[in-house]
Structures are given as C-alpha cells and as structure tokens.
Amino acid sequence: MTEPMPNRWAGTMGKRWHSNYTQFEGMLSDVGDALLEFAQLAPGENILDIGFGGGATALDAARSIGPEGQLVGVDISADLVQLANERASQEGLSNARFIEADAGTVEIPDVKFDVLLSRFGVMFFEDSYAAFKNMHSLLKPGARAALAVWAPAEGNLWMSSMREIVGKYVEMPPADPRAPGPMAFSDFAYFTDILEKAGFSDISKKDWTGSLYVGGKGADPARAADFGMESQSAADMIAELPEDAKASIHAELLELATPYYNGSDVVMSGDVFFVSATA
Ligand SMILES: C[S@@+](CC[C@H](N)C(=O)[O-])C[C@H]1O[C@@H](n2cnc3c(N)ncnc32)[C@H](O)[C@@H]1O
Q1: Domain map of the chain by residue range?
Q2: What Rg, from alpha-carbon coordinates, does the chain have?
Q3: Which of 3.40.50.150, 3.30.70.270, 3.90.1720.10, 1.10.150.530 would CATH assign to domain 5-152+176-214+264-278?
Q4: Nearest to residue 203, comparing CAs of 194, 215, 192?
Q5: How remote is the CA of residue 66 from the centroid of ligand 1, in Å?
Q6: Which sign, positive or negative, has the C-alpha torsion 86, 115, 67, 30?
Q7: With a threshold of 0.90, does the pTM exceed it?
Q8: What does the pLDDT read at residue 4?
C-alpha cells in the first residue's frame, strides 16, 4: 500500500529531494524568481515558507526582508531542515530558521506572519481544508499569501510525459487531480474553496508560463534522463526493475529530452499558478 504523501516526504521523498536538491532548485529557478517578484516582500516583514525543500526560495526571501524581518520555514523532512539550517548559517542569514513539522498542524507561538509563501510546498496534505485553516491561524490579520502551485498537466509536458513513460513499466497510482501530490491544486476552483473556508479573501491567480531546466541548469539530455529516473516519486519502484527495463525507461526519457536541448540546458515549458489571498 502507498504511504500517505506527507509521510513519504518525511522519509524517502524528503531524502530524494535532499540528494537532488541542486538539480531541483536549478530546474525551478525561474519559478522562484517570478514568485518572489509576485510576493513583493518588504524589509522588516515576517515570512512563513511552507515546504521549503532545500531552502532556495526561503533564503532568497530572508535576504530580501533584511535583519529586521524574520523568515521561518516549516518542512516535514528532517534531512531538508538540517540542510536549510546549514545553508542559512553558512550564508550568515541569522534572520532565517527552519523547523521540522507538519505545516498542517504546526504551532509557532512566538511570531505572527505578514506573508505565507510557498513554491510547490502546499499540495501534499491529506486534509488540505484543515491544513490551510492551521496556516491561516499563524498569520496576522490582513497578511497575504503568495503560493506557487502547478497548473494542469497539459501545460506541464515534462511531468505528464515522464509519468506516461514510467507508467509503462511500473504501476502508477491513478491520476486523481485532487489527491495529495504535485497537481492537487491544478483545479483553481477547488483551491479557492479551500482558501475561502480557511478564512482567506481576495483570492486570485496569475498564470505563469516559463522555463523549467530539466535536471538542473547545465544538464544535457542524458543527465536530464538520469534525473527523470532518480527524482520521481516512482524512483524506488524504478530502481527495483530489471536492468533492461531501466535501460528502456532511460532511452525513452532521453528521446523526450533531446529535442529540448539548446546546447547548454534541457528547457521545457511549465505552467504555474501564482495564487494570492488576504488573511
Ligand atoms: C515539491 S517540494 C518543494 C520544495 C521547495 N519549496 C522548492 O520549491 O524547492 C515539496 C516540499 O514540501 C514538503 N512537505 C510536504 N508535505 C509537508 C507537510 N505536510 N508539512 C510541511 N512540509 C511538507 C516536502 O518535504 C518538500 O520539501
């Protein structure tokens, strides 16, 4: 039986993100820049970053709010919490701290936040209605949310095609658009309902289409294909396949990536919703 998604992030999925974080962060760098522009963080603000992964967006946010502001990151993976705290201290960012907790239930008694920020970290709750109520309770009245979530699969060929290829070889769970997972909020009406019931108002989205650097910046198609095999939620199942099946998946992923190689990166298009709301 598949473990519930949050548990998998606390375990194998978090470890996988940790091992590949430079590739993930390279891949998502344009999304992160656009999200921070969307969020319009100001010096002195308190920011709550949910599901910060390796911490790239959170660390950028901490830089932009200056020493008067505070950045608190919440992530369910102990490995990622340790990594982000190390990165913050290496960079001398004393206004950033990262805590291990489920954002759906975490309590942070010593600070109230001006901004709820997340790049792809809020789609993994078993009960999103309860989780967003909890996150809302951590915000100051009138605070804003700036959240990046994946738009429908049609605009994210890299994800849908990889899933299709891998699905030929391993049994993938049926695509349930509202189940915890990357596409959980690709139905904006559903996400709006969750936010409204949590107490948010003025909910709107900006559609963003931009570049995803598959396998990270500087990855060639072979490296992008390696990344496709190692980084997905099905990676453990792929690892257990016979060698000829693994070779076939790699060959198909290579064929997918090759036309998108521009000589330095494998660049595929991604569709993202940047969602804003007022607490
Ligand atoms: C797709 S990754 C995004 C990481 C990072 N925001 C980025 O864009 O590089 C999702 C992150 O959400 C975290 N996560 C998943 N469920 C969570 C939960 N219930 N509470 C807190 N963090 C969670 C995972 O551990 C992971 O770091």
Answers
A1: 5-152+176-214+264-278
A2: 18
A3: 3.40.50.150
A4: 192
A5: 24
A6: positive
A7: yes
A8: 53
